[in-house]
């Protein structure tokens, strides 16, 4: 059986290489689209949050300010109260922020793996900057719908957080820890966020190429036709693309009319797509965290988000109409410049290279010579 599987994978790999050679130009266009997503959407909306989140957790700067929120999280989710900043940053920072912070805590020896795996179930969320600025504004031209989607995710966040801790013992973190100087913490936070950002953008480019390859070879169209027997064709195509990569999927929601576009966008941003989940897997693998519990609760997270969005639409009777084309438009909340994002990425890579060479002076105590009097 393993031989057949290996032979099948070899054939698939050979076919993919041949397709890349024969369709090099159009696939290159797909990769350029992925670069556009990285420069216009991901870097502006994620990078600053990742630096801030890492810096606040390393220095403990927000623990006093967020003590009430930490107390609430401790009661609801059965976690340590000092993890309030981690939970909040995972909620507002974007998909990989929570996974990165939990991984760092495990690597520092401050958290057990089983506790980090449980928190991972509700600490991987799409932030409001992405949902509003990269989904609602370009797709619907309405920020209110972005807040509605984020409120739906917030409901799923609390539901999964409570259920994942149901029947589980509460845990606490060690009280004593070494707090680095602010200057050292800032340099390390920027370097760490840069590594994570390069990792995220790399996965987006790979999946953009994969989506282009599947579209050009007709695989995506065939799957869309098959699912079209059960769902409208635009919905089927948007879901197929979004399951692979969320930003391309939400752009494809422009082909869906009415309330279906918002429900599909809510479901896709809640699920995150395989691209986001592989980013999370790559991050947590450094701490050898298992993703089994995460996948179990992710389907529940997606279902609760979608049902909540439907309920809120019925309750407030919000009109929904798409204004983008199915091909997608450059998503923005503010006027981001791709060139400035590119320079920011280059500067961060330079900082990452120099951060490894930064010297931390260790003062070793001098051994005093004993004076022996004659």
From TrEMBL:
Residues spanning the membrane: 34-57, 119-141, 147-167, 203-227, 254-276, 297-316, 336-355
Q: Which keywords does the record carry? A: Membrane, Transmembrane, Transmembrane helix
Keyword RNA-binding belongs to the record: no
Protein name as it appears in the record: Putative sporulation integral membrane protein YlbJ
Q: Which organism is it from?
A: [Clostridium] methylpentosum DSM 5476
Q: What is the lineage of its organism?
A: Bacteria, Bacillati, Bacillota, Clostridia, Eubacteriales
């Amino acid at each position: 059986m393993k031989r057949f599987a290996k032979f099948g994978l070899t054939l698939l790999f050979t076919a993919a290489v041949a397709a890349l050679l024969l369709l090099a130009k159009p696939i290159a266009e797909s990769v350029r689209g992925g670069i556009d997503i990285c420069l216009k959407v991901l870097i502006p909306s994620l990078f600053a949050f990742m630096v801030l989140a890492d810096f606040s957790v390393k220095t403990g700067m927000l623990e006093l300010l967020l003590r009430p929120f930490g107390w609430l999280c401790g009661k609801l989710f059965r976690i340590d109260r000092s993890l309030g900043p981690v939970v909040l940053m995972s909620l507002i920072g974007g998909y990989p922020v929570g996974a990165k912070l939990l991984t760092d805590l495990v690597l520092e020896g401050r958290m057990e793996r089983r506790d980090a795996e449980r928190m991972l179930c509700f600490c991987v969320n799409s932030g409001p900057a992405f949902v509003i600025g990269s989904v609602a504004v370009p797709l619907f031209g309405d920020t209110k719908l972005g807040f509605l989607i984020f409120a739906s995710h917030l409901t799923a966040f609390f539901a999964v957080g409570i259920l994942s801790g149901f029947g589980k013992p509460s845990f606490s973190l060690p009280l004593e820890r070494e707090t680095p100087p602010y200057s050292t913490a800032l340099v390390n936070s920027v370097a760490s966020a840069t590594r994570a950002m390069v990792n995220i953008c790399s996965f987006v480019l790979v999946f953009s190429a994969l989506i282009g390859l599947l579209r050009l070879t007709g695989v995506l169209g065939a799957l869309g036709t098959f699912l079209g027997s059960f769902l409208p064709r635009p919905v089927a195509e948007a879901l197929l693309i979004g399951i692979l990569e969320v930003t391309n999927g939400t752009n494809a929601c422009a082909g869906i009319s009415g309330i279906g576009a918002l429900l599909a966008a809510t479901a896709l941003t809640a699920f995150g797509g395989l691209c986001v989940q592989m980013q999370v897997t790559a991050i947590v693998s450094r701490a050898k965290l298992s993703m089994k519990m995460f996948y179990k609760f992710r389907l529940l997270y997606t279902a609760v988000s979608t049902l909540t969005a439907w309920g809120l639409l019925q309750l407030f009777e919000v009109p929904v109409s798409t204004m983008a084309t199915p091909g997608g438009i450059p998503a923005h909340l503010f006027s981001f410049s791709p060139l400035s994002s590119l320079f920011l990425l280059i500067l961060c890579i330079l900082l990452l290279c120099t951060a490894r060479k930064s010297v931390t002076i260790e003062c070793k105590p001098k051994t005093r010579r004993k004076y022996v009097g004659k």
